[in-house]
User: Fold this.
Amino acid sequence: METADNPGSDGQRDRVTRRARQLWELLEPVHGVVYFAPDAQARFEAVGLKGFWMGYFASRAAALGPVGPDLVVATFYVFNPGMVARALPDAWNLAAPEVVLDARSELADATLREALGDLATGPDAEAAAELAGSIARTAPRAGHPLGAAHGALPPPGDPLGKLWWAATVLREHRGDGHVAALLTADVDPCAALVLAAKNGKFGPQGEGLLQTSRKWTDQDWVAATGRLIERGWVDAGSGELTAAGRASHESIEDATDRAAASAYAPYSGGDLETLVQALEPLVTRIAETGALPLPNPIGIDPTAALDLD
Assistant:
């Protein structure tokens, strides 16, 4: 891999930060198909887990080992703690973490192969796997618990499996930085969802989508909205974000980008552009096949990700 020119310069940091957001938008659809696969629940139930959400929490947390709900609440951040406690640690009495990880890898591989068709074994998948895999291996671990845990897992030998592994490492690495940005801004988990939903990225039904999928009660949601009103981030009359709220939301996203950029900083602009070009046809196919539905609780629109340049 080439080394970035002057990686410490302000101009280089700005370019890498912008590229970090674009690459999240392109890598997230590769990773995210695993959550929307029609057979996701059945695959996890086949190894002993019970229901979709037990499969979700156990499969995403398994890289950490047989952890309890507290660590998952801390690292996943935006889920109602009671929701997590219904899945963990009971899941580990039904299936060991390594069994769950294998089931998740098999689900990801089958889902991506179905979505990508001939592209699954094409040169773009190979190029993306090589570049993203290198970035995932060298991404800083300090302060990134989920990114580090997934990065410690051995990557699959085949290109498509390696690409999904790399996309997973880098999205969790970014997520760790996002949690740090929310904590620094003093935004609690439910308020973080309210803020994100009111930004409009999740569509007109965004508040209902995020509240329901993360299992916060109406009382929780109203209280979190009230906290944002008190800060002047949400207008009490219209319920919309104020200018201060929009600026604060963007500030959190910018801080997230800066934290994510640490993974990409050692790589040249040419390397990162090559990765973008390799990912674009894959993401186009994922969007065309509907493997990542719209809207979704991740807030990713694969079609928008293709227009970030």
Notes: The radius of gyration is 19 Å.
